[in-house]
What we know:
Radius of gyration: 16 Å
Bound molecules: FE2/S2 (inorganic) cluster
Number of strands: 4
Strand content: 15-25%
Structural class: alpha+beta
Distance between the termini: 31 Å
Number of helices: 3
Low-confidence stretches: none
Number of domains: 1
Strand order of the largest sheet: 2-1-3-4
Amino acid sequence: MGKKHKAIAGEIIVADGPWRELLLVCRKCGDKLGGGFGPKGKDTLSQGYKQVLRDGGRRREVRVLEVGCLGLCPKDGVTVMHGGRPGEMLVIPEGFDLAELAVRLAAS
Ligand code: FES
């Protein structure tokens, strides 16, 4: 199937994507922190995590998607949800080593 899809009445179209993993990141948590991750502590969790994936050659395998509030609303942390485990939300504290997060999520 090409890049542009046209809906067909009564049919569901399935398009292949390049991703093998999905990470949902609360945008509101990130906005409240105003950074807090990466080598200088200036990146959002999404930015920092994407860089870790890039450094590991896995950027095209993992879809990092910022979403609205996930309902936990932690202080000094960001709520994330791994697409393969929707019943488990993780609170990532400000300054956490995102390479360690990548290892943990790849193993789950
Ligand atoms: S503000 Fe992030 S979980 Fe609610």
